[in-house]
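$ ./design --mode recover --in tokens.txt
reading tokens...
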């Protein structure tokens, strides 16, 4: 079996006129936040004309941390509503729930046979989420990246639009796909991560050394999509800043750099232009306009969410039709995988 060092890091560079295939996923674990929006969903929306897109609500992944039936069901529905409210057009893409397509679990098992234990142990997300308690966390948390590889490889995805924190998982996906192809012949497309230079790592509002995260115990550290306008303004006012008064992007000023980055994405400006706009105006003026920019971006999404909440049959239909389309594609891939690996067929 090839070692990690021997594996190629070449682009998949598909030689084709067809639209590139995209697969991305998000966990239904509650508290969708501004980092999810700027790092992932906003890019899904911006690129929906360009690519052949599939988006997956990864409920099986959410089982890797303790959850209850009711909260999982509520989170799945809420996330599906949020994705559509944020602008993903269900007629132009395939939006579905992972567990509705049984092939994800099946391919995950097959891929575990070409995944090394040591590779999984090196995953930084596992180290973070297990918090050093690797005797008592679920085995699902450990094999989590293999299920993610299955999500991607089932749909022959060329590109995976994600935030920076997912880069290592996409690299593992490529390694696993390459190893399977080596052992059984060309079967999988090697996907590339699609990580934008801006917004890929939105940091926490109370500590710029940590990424903004829905699992943070401090709700002031993130802007949740459900936050009311006044709550958003208050959180931004309270956000930590660095010493000084000038609005400047500077590696020595990580908190300010993070806030400038959020402002620049929402207003489609470069960070330098933001610096110029706020030259000599101080933190107060900047934070107040940043708060307004976030409110302006989030309010219409909240409005559409209310409408979707009032008509659950809309999202039911979207997810049912998405699952049908995803199943049809995934079953073709699994037939190929079973045949290559010599599994079943009797
Ligand atoms: P999840 O649910 O944690 O996050 C969903 C997306 O949001 C991005 N993100 C961020 N981007 C910028 N700044 C932040 N602070 C921030 N926090 C989160 C994530 O990078 C991600 O793009 N393992 C994945 C879900 C997954 C998946 C997949 C992704 C399962 N299967 C297949 C892509 C392809 C996860 O836990 O994302």
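writing sequence...
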């Amino acid at each position: 079996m090839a070692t990690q060092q021997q594996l190629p890091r070449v682009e998949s560079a598909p030689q084709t006129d067809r639209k590139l295939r995209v697969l991305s996923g998000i966990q239904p674990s509650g508290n969708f936040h501004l980092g999810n929006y700027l790092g992932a969903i906003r890019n899904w929306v911006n690129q929906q004309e360009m690519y052949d897109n599939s988006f997956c609500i990864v409920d099986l992944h959410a089982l890797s941390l303790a959850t209850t039936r009711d909260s999982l069901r509520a989170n799945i529905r809420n996330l599906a509503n949020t994705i559509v409210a944020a602008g993903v057009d269900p007629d132009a893409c395939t939006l579905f729930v992972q567990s509705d397509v049984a092939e994800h679990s099946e391919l995950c098992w097959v891929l575990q046979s070409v995944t090394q234990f040591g590779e999984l142990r090196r995953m930084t997300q596992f180290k973070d989420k297990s918090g050093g308690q690797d005797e008592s966390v679920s085995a699902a948390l450990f094999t989590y990246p293999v299920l993610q590889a299955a999500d991607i490889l089932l749909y022959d995805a060329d590109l995976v639009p994600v935030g920076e924190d997912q880069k290592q998982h996409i690299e593992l996906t490529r390694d696993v796909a390459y190893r399977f192809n080596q052992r059984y012949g060309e079967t999988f497309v090697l996907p590339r991560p699609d990580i934008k230079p801006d917004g890929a790592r939105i940091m926490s509002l109370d500590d710029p050394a940590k990424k903004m995260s829905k699992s943070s115990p401090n709700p002031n550290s993130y802007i949740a999509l459900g936050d009311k306008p006044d709550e958003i303004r208050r959180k931004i006012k309270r956000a930590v800043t660095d010493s000084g008064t000038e609005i400047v992007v500077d590696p020595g000023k990580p908190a300010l750099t993070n806030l400038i980055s959020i402002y620049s994405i929402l207003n489609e400006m470069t960070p330098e232009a933001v610096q110029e706009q706020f030259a000599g105006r101080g933190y107060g003026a900047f934070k107040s306009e940043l708060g307004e920019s976030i409110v302006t971006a989030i309010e219409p999404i909240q409005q559409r969410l209310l409408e979707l909440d009032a008509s659950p049959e809309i999202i039911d239909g979207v997810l049912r039709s998405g699952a049908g389309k995803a199943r049809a594609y995934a079953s073709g891939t699994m037939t190929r995988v079973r045949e290559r690996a010599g599994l079943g067929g009797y």
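exit 0
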